[in-house]
Q: What sequence folds into this?
């Protein structure tokens, strides 16, 4: 380290030698830039009029006034950097404190999974009749006989999938005890890259019975033969469940269903029974008559739950889901009322109760109150709108996107008419390479979007120019941009 006396005398001697007036080239001045980086590892520092770096390089600052200003900037910069470090450390300590505080609080949940869709309860209230019918149709499998094909339909949240899984799980347990060869395959046709083409469905079926095939690259007939060969390798009863089978037909056509319903004619050892589950009551009406007759050997309808039945379901689940005293019967009744309003959807009621409880916990509340139900309803409604839009057929998405674009380009108001929508729709079809439907069919799609609550329509007369429909968007304003982005990705990517 250089001592003070040495620095002072050294500086005085050098100043005598230098005539600052003779220095005209400003590049010879060493000036400190406005941005100064403090490197603690470099041991850089200023000592009065001298910049001393690693005890090796000594630089003179001839402009003393400028140096004083820069020294102030340096001090402020050092202070700012230290403040940033303190803020970062403070943020980390706040986060640590938050998590510690969260873990120190007692959860209001006992078992949150009880409120999720994947949970399989031991008892299913208000579905005894349907469970008995299911059991009687599938029971021949226990005698190693092929059960009849079964088609089940009903609205979302009416217990279709749950009851099927419940009966099949009991069936599987008994078959294991009796050493029977029973194979159950479950395919969710709603999932992308699983059931969006005939090839992928058959490839997934092959994987379910232990035969690995690539997702693409082979002819569909070859993949089918691989599946068939593996399936027929032993004597067994195979029950194939196609959940949301209507989605499969919309995406891949009903040829795959025709093939599967005729599969037993190509098997020597195995026997296959098909259970098709659909939310669309009218789905069967649009099927090829050959598929309809084969798939619909047996039919089972699941009616919607009423408010009292949903309340019983919530009461049963809440006993295992929450700790004692967390939820009241009035809160359960409100959940049930909300769900009953939506065609008796028990799944929605369970989601509503779970989200309400999560919001209560975030707010630091020890019990679920009715205000939490209201907040949860608003949150779920937004997610529901996005799910409805993203699962619509492509043509319906095109029509909705056309409406949004027409309204966006209007200078005033949020109303458009069917003619404007059809013109924009044709443009989109040209851009995306989709087939243009007739104006009458577009009118039908507008009616369907209205039934889903995405738009409102009003029939108006234009005198001798005929009649048209005014179209209003029903989607919440703060969701519009999110909907447009989602539709763009679905249609163009």
A:
């Amino acid at each position: 380290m250089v001592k003070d006396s040495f620095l002072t005398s050294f500086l005085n001697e050098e100043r005598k030698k230098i005539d600052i007036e003779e220095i005209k080239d400003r590049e010879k001045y060493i000036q400190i830039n406005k941005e100064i980086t403090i490197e603690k590892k470099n041991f850089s520092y200023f000592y009065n009029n001298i910049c001393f770096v690693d005890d090796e390089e000594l630089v003179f600052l001839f402009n003393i006034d400028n140096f004083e200003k820069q020294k102030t900037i340096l001090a402020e910069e050092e202070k700012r950097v230290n403040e940033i470090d303190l803020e970062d450390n403070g943020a980390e300590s706040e986060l640590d404190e938050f998590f510690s505080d969260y873990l120190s609080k007692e959860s209001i949940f006992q078992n949150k999974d009880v409120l999720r869709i994947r949970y399989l309860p031991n008892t299913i209230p208000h579905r005894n009749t349907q469970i008995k019918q299911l059991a009687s149709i599938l029971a021949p499998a226990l005698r190693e006989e092929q059960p009849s094909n079964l088609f089940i339909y009903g609205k979302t949240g009416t217990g279709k999938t749950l009851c099927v899984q419940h009966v099949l799980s009991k069936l599987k347990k008994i078959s294991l005890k009796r050493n029977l060869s029973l194979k159950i395959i479950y395919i969710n046709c709603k999932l992308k890259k699983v059931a969006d083409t005939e090839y992928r469905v058959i490839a997934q079926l092959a994987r379910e019975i232990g035969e690995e095939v690539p997702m693409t690259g082979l002819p569909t007939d070859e993949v089918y033969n691989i599946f068939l060969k593996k399936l027929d390798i032993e004597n067994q009863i195979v029950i194939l469940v196609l959940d949301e089978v209507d989605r499969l037909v919309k995406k891949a056509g009903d040829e795959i269903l025709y093939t599967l319903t005729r599969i037993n004619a190509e098997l020597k050892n195995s026997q296959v029974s098909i259970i098709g589950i659909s939310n669309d009551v009218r789905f069967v009406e649009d099927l090829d008559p050959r598929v309809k007759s084969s798939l619909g050997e047996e039919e089972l309808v699941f009616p919607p739950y009423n408010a009292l039945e949903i309340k019983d379901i919530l009461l049963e689940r809440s006993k295992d889901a929450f700790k004692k005293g967390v939820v009241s019967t009035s809160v359960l009744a409100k959940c049930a009322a909300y769900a009953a309003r939506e065609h008796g959807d028990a799944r929605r009621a369970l989601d509503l109760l779970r989200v309400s409880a999560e919001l209560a916990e975030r707010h630091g509340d020890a019990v679920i109150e009715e205000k939490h139900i209201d907040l949860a309803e608003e949150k779920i409604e937004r997610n529901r709108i996005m799910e409805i839009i993203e699962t619509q057929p492509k043509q319906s998405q095109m029509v909705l996107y056309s409406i949004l674009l027409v309204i966006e380009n209007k200078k005033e108001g949020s109303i458009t008419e069917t003619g404007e929508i059809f013109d924009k729709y044709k443009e989109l079809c040209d851009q995306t390479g989709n087939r243009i439907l007739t104006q009458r069919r577009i009118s039908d799609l507008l009616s369907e979007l209205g039934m889903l609550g995405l738009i409102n329509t009003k029939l108006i007369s234009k005198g001798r120019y005929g009649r048209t429909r005014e179209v209003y968007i029903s989607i919440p304003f703060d969701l519009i941009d999110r909907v447009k982005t989602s539709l763009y990705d679905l249609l163009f990517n």
